[in-house]
Amino acid sequence: MSKITSLADLKKRREELKSGLDIRVKAIDPENVVQVKVAMATCGIASGAKTIMEFFLEQLDRRNIAAVVTQTGCMGYCYAEPTIEVKLPGQDPVVFGFVDLKRADQIIEKYIKTGELVDGIIPVNYQTIDLKE
Amino acid sequence: MSKYSMHLLVCGGTGCHASESDAIVCNLRDELEAKGLMDTVQVIMTGCFGFCEKGPIVKVMPDNTFYVQVKPEDAQTIVEEHVIKGRKVTRLLYKDPVTRESISDSKHMGFFKKQLRIVLRNCGFINPENIDEYIARDGYLALGKVLTEMTPEEVIKEVKASGQRGRGGAGFSTGLKWELARKNQSDEKYVVCNADEGDPGAFMDRSVLEGDPHSVLEAMAICGYSIGAGNGLIYIRAEYPLAIERLKIAINQARENGLLGDNIFGTGFSFDIKLRYGAGAFVCGEETALIHSMEGLRGEPTVKPPFPAESGYNGKPTNVNNVETFAAIPAIILKGAKWFASIGTEKSKGTKVFALAGKINNVGLIEVPMGTTLREVIFEIGGGIRNGKKFKGIQTGGPSGGCLSEKHLDTPIDFDNLIAAGSIMGSGAMIVLDEDDCMVSMAKFFLEFTVEESCGKCAPCRIGNKRLHELLGQICEGKGTLADLDRLKNMSIVIKDTALCGLGQTSPNPVLSMMDNYYDEYVAHVTDKKCPAGQCKSLMEYVINPDNCVGCTACARVCPVNAISGERKEVHHIDPAICIKCGACMEKCKFDAIFIN
Q1: Which of A63, B148, B297, B411 is the most buried (most CB within 10 A)?
Q2: How far is B217 from chain A, CA to nearest CA, in Å?
């Protein structure tokens, strides 16, 4: 990995990475790339998030769904762990709580495959900041 | 893609469920079925929207229409008017409490603006083990800006102007702290991140380190540049293995990318960060004790002054800030002090992360602007009290804080208001208590923690807290007197005034605030020998109601100490002298004949 040696370097890297993420979404057939984020903080892992993450990695592959499964930190919904966020291309992300294997299966079969929502959605109830100003 | 063109989201949280939201789902489905719309409109039950006060909630997607206080019989109107004719049902829309205008779009509702995530901006959004995602979210840009465009004095001025106060508990101005550390000349200085989060019920620092470790590393480097330090240390408790793991990964990635180490951004500024592990002692969250622990000494506080800014780690000027304090710094630098200072109250700027725990529906982490009221936090964001029970109190600031009662619900939360109300901000733990919690037992519970965690160096804390705990124990057992209540109060005040460090100075807070707010309950324990909440075992008496008892002998058979006597098919009797109040008989009785007096 090359070192970042100046601020201009960092900005260049950021642009590359940003477009890199875009490419990840756009380059492949956009209708088929799904992003799944699993909340993997201590609370999530204690409630079984690891199993859920493995399930998504394995099953999305097995069911031939092009998807990116990543881990992330605590979403704050500790009462509803394990929680995952699924972003279908071109749509707003949806957060699901209380994800056990059965619900994970439903999410793949119903939400990811057909866009049909399943129980356990946690509505977004916060605003976040945009650092650019 | 979806064959459905419209989604009806119905809240299935406890609060809405209690107000028949399941009947709304049934009715909506029936209506849609009757109109032949089952294939185009889908009804989904969701988790709590957090807006329980106005429940049940029905949200129509994709147009984001938000209906409140919906009744099962409204299902027909929603389907006929909104779904078929596309007209919003005005009478079910949320009305702005001030302007009385109907708001249809949830994005414009004040409620959804109540949570604002600055510290948690990346938590649950980026992959914490991948520095690229942090950089893609403008990570390390603030460090770059500081190193190339600002002098250390300008950075400190900016942080001071933002009005940020330390999130570790005491609420000291961050900028002022940095300024003091900068003024002290030395060949070596240190930046320390206090990640020794020890309050029961607080876990925001852990979540930030696990979810967004780079934000803390970046801020430490910014601090290093400002005060003239080249070394950073993170003091983290060994009980946080995942946070440690992610920090290690983050530090390595930052070094590989040249964002930590020598000559950062080619500016000649060098800064590196190392981890130091704590063994999980509460007192080590106090900065002097923390520094001693890092030096390999006993984790005991020393008298200030000298402040760490003069003589800290290895006798060198040291700046100690909390995780949450650091995590907000990059945002302050990039968006400016003015922006940060525009959020919050007059003397407490920005947002605060709170960890909601206890008898509350939405246990979790929230971030709200300072000045949000306790009522908004508990009933709107937190979803209210579990199992429909009544709110009794809220312990803010962990065992060092106080318990606030119903009369404080509309107090805007900030550093000064909490102190005025007899509590503290602390690290932001909020433990919600309901009608079943006994305020004497709770005070005893928190004291137990401080007695256990006292380092033993000064007498007021070591001996005084122990005596307080004993007194509370006696009161719980029904052996207390009215004079004991005065003794409790006087001793608490003496400990507060004379203890060496923050731990001892704040440990009597739960006792004092609970006695202030729930004095009747304390009196009931000592004069009537009764525990109104029914928690103190010694003050309870299990009694058999002769009207309900059928003499089945089930209770007598299950009693482990043979305290229950009575012939078959005759009313039984519990001997209070033998009874150990285990409750087994009450659990066994099928006729509700046993109750607690």
Answers
A1: B411
A2: 16
- The pair of structure tokens assigned to B143 is 């460090």
- Rounded-to-integer distance, Cα B12 and Cα A98, Å: 13
Q: Do B302 and B420 have their domain in common?
A: no
What is each CA distance from B469 to B75, B238, B458, B491, B500, in whole angstroms?
56, 29, 17, 11, 19
B117 contacts A129? CB cut-off 8 A: yes
How far does the CA of residue B444 sit from the closest CA of chain A (Å)? 27
Beta strand spans in B293-377 (E): 318-322, 351-358, 364-369
Confidence of residue B292 (pLDDT cuts 50, 70, 90): very high
Q: Which domain holds residue B98?
A: 6-112
Q: Is residue B498 assigned to a domain?
A: yes
User: Domain count of chain B?
Assistant: 5
Q: Which residue has the tokens 């290895």?
A: B314
CATH number of A31-122: 3.40.30.10
Contacts of A71 in chain B (CB under 8 A): 127-129
- Kindly report the CATH number assigned to the domain that includes residue B155: 3.40.50.11540
Are A120 and A86 in contact by the 8 Å Cβ rule? The answer is no
The pLDDT tens digits of the residues spanning B505-527 come to 999 999 999 999 999 999 999 99
In three-state secondary structure terms, B153 is: helix
| Burial readout B306-330 (b: 16 or more C-beta within 10 A, e: otherwise) | ebbbbbbbeebbbbbbbbbbbbbbb
With CA atoms as reference, report the closest residue to B170 among B367, B320, B317. Answer: B320
B10 touches B44 (CB < 8 A) = yes
Contact state of A76 with B366 under an 8 Å Cβ cutoff: yes
Please report the number of interchain residue pairs, chain A to chain B, with beta-carbon separation below 8 angstroms: 200
Phi-psi region of B457 (alpha: psi -120 to 50; beta: other; left: phi over 0): alpha
CB < 8 Å to B377, chain A: none
In the stretch 30-49 of chain B, residues with CB closer than 8 A to chain A read 42, 44-49
CB contact under 8 A, B334 and A122: no
User: Where in B408-508 does DSSP place strands (E)?
Assistant: 429-434
Q: Please, which pLDDT band fits residue B113 given cuts at 50, 70 and 90?
A: low
For residue B44, the chain A residues in CB contact (below 8 A) are 117-119, 121
* Residue B279, beta-bridge partner list: none
pTM for the full model?
0.82
Closest CA to B73 of B15, B27, B11: B27
Query: In the structure, what pLDDT confidence band is assigned to residue B147 with cuts at 50, 70 and 90?
Result: very high
ipTM score? 0.71
Q: Which of B472, B506, B528 finishes a domain?
A: B528
Q: Is B270 on the interface with A (CB under 8 A)?
A: no
Percentage of residues in chain A having pLDDT higher than 90: 25
CB of B246 within 8 A of CB of B128? yes
Q: Report which of A80, A123, A83 is spatially closest to residue B123, judged by C-alpha positions.
A: A83
Question: Per the domain annotation, does B346 fall within a domain?
Answer: no
Tell whether B266 lies on the interface with A, counting CB pairs under 8 A: yes
| Range(s) of chain A covered by CATH 3.40.30.10 | 31-122
